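Q: Here's a chain of 143 amino acids. Please give me its 3D structure as tokens.
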Amino acid sequence: MSDAGPEKRQHALRRAVTHLDPARFFRFAVVGGIATVIQFSILVALVELAHVNKLIANAIGFAFAATANYLMNRYFTFAGTQSHMGYGILKFAVTSVIGLGINTIIFQTLMSLGLWYVIAWVLATGLTLIWNYSAARLIVFRG
């Protein structure tokens, strides 16, 4: 029987929501803002200057932003909560791939509804923030 049953996951989620650390969330938002600028800059540069497919450009920007995001969160937002960097990177990589999937599905859906890719990206990124913070707090940097 798995030790990560539904009750344990629900308890962890309730704990994260009810014990939101405003200072840590603010640091997370600052780091996320920097990562967002990185991703957006790469997305627009690749689409507008190099004529790369929007979904591919988004994924490339996401990869660079996720790397910067991990390092800034590890040393600034969640300093001292993860003792082994290699294991932390692995957890971050897995949760980031899930985040990229969420982001891509929302991004593609909104573009298919006729939204300009920049507006679609802003909305997709904002919605993906919910997953990103929850995954960082409960999985990657718990402790």
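Q: Can you summarize the key feature?
A: The longest helix spans residues 22-49.
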